Amino acid sequence: MTDLKAREKEMKEEKEEERQRKNQVIKDRRAAKEEKEKYEKLAETMHRKRVERLKRREKRNKLLKS
Fold this sequence. Notes:
By secondary structure, this protein is mostly helical. The chain contains 1 helix and no strands. Helix content is 97%, strand content 0%. The protein has one helix spanning 2-65.
């Protein structure tokens, strides 16, 4: 009887460890995805700002030439 209970307890612990491992993998993936999206968004805004700056510069040059 004690052997059966010990084996049951061991199986439950293994199951719990597996569940926690899966949860950790999901959390890691989610964090990596959020970080990637953050940098993509940052790059996009930097690009947008650069484009706006170039447009203003071109507009200023056109006014100076005329």
